Amino acid sequence: MPTVLLVEDNEMNRDMLSRRLQRKGYEVLLAVDGQQGIDLCRAEMPNLVLLDMSLPVKDGWQVAREMKADSGLCNIPIIALTAHAMADDRQRALQAGCDDYDTKPVDLPRLLAKIECLLGPAE
Question: Cys-Cys with 3: which of 27, 80, 107, 109 at CB 3.0–4.6 Å?
Fold first, then answer.
């Protein structure tokens, strides 16, 4: 079962998305800020990270740059999740090291297609 780390500070978003991912066959780890996300990546080595970009402690831009600069974490795919939906926000996320980008509110079928593109099907 693929493991997805969801780094999201909004409790409602975190709970909703984690339940929906679990129903689709993913094991879900949760972090509530950027530093906790990096620490969990190092400890658990998830298959993929869903990364909110507006986080406390370390924002998603910084987390993505740190992960991609770390030889132990650089191969973990990152999908940026953000309410920022301007054209340059996608480019900024990709430049920070994210492998893909999706907007909030999350459209689950679209997000699952992006996850499967990076990991293959969960089941």
Answer: 27
